[in-house]
User: Fold ABC transporter ATP-binding protein from Verticiella sediminum.
Amino acid sequence: MLKLDRLSMSYGSFRALDDISLHAAPGELVVLLGANGAGKSSIFLTMSGIHRPASGSIQFDGMELSGMKPSQIVEGGLVHCPEGRKLFPGMSVQKNLTLGAYVHRKDREGVRRSLEEVFDLFPILREKKDDPAGSLSGGQQQMVAIGRALMGRPRALLLDEPSLGLAPLVVRQVFEVIQRINRAGTTVLLAEQNAYSALAIADRGYVIEGGRIVLEGDRDALLGNEGVRKAYIGG
Ligand code: ATP
Assistant:
């Protein structure tokens, strides 16, 4: 179980997250909806140990994550795939992927197996494994970013705006892959502005505005909610 309890976080004097409580049960796919600047990335950056919470707790399978280093959090099984992919464009696809397995680097056989699993999930990356990551299309680069996160062997995955800047057909492929990863047993927290596609594959979701949760519900309740439709789906 992944559980935030009354989590707050500030950038200097600006309170970016205010009393956020949310959870994802093992195997669930939970969506965070919200406009630009609502606080979705800040939630993930705090969960993954990049920012320190001002108060509140972040629990994962009985561990308290707040105060842990990012590498310890990855070792604990919670892996963050950041907004904007954050690849090393001049490095090969395989090198970028292998960086995601840094905390497991001593287990060379395990890293090799994870790499094969990622190549099985994204066959195009096997073909392009020696190419610089920056030479790939936007959709393929997003696959590298997701693949790199999988190399960390997550039990729970934080995916920040994986559809950003991608063509509709590619968005569909990315969401299909996310659904496959989730169905194979990985808990997924998915931050998205592409509300309709995200809710289509989700179990539940939360709506974030101004660093607060303003609404939560299961997929059908959110898809049917007039406010959600107007603000995030369009009519
Ligand atoms: P987006 O999709 O645009 O990233 P978001 O919902 O992820 O939106 P955040 O990036 O978490 O939103 O930003 C939440 C608020 O915190 C915004 O008002 C943003 O301007 C502010 N913010 C984000 N990062 C910083 C930072 N490093 N320093 C100061 N303020 C920040």
About this structure: The first strand starts at residue 2 and ends at 11. Residues 11, 14, 16, 34, 36-42, 83, 161 surround adenosine-5'-triphosphate (CB under 6 Å).
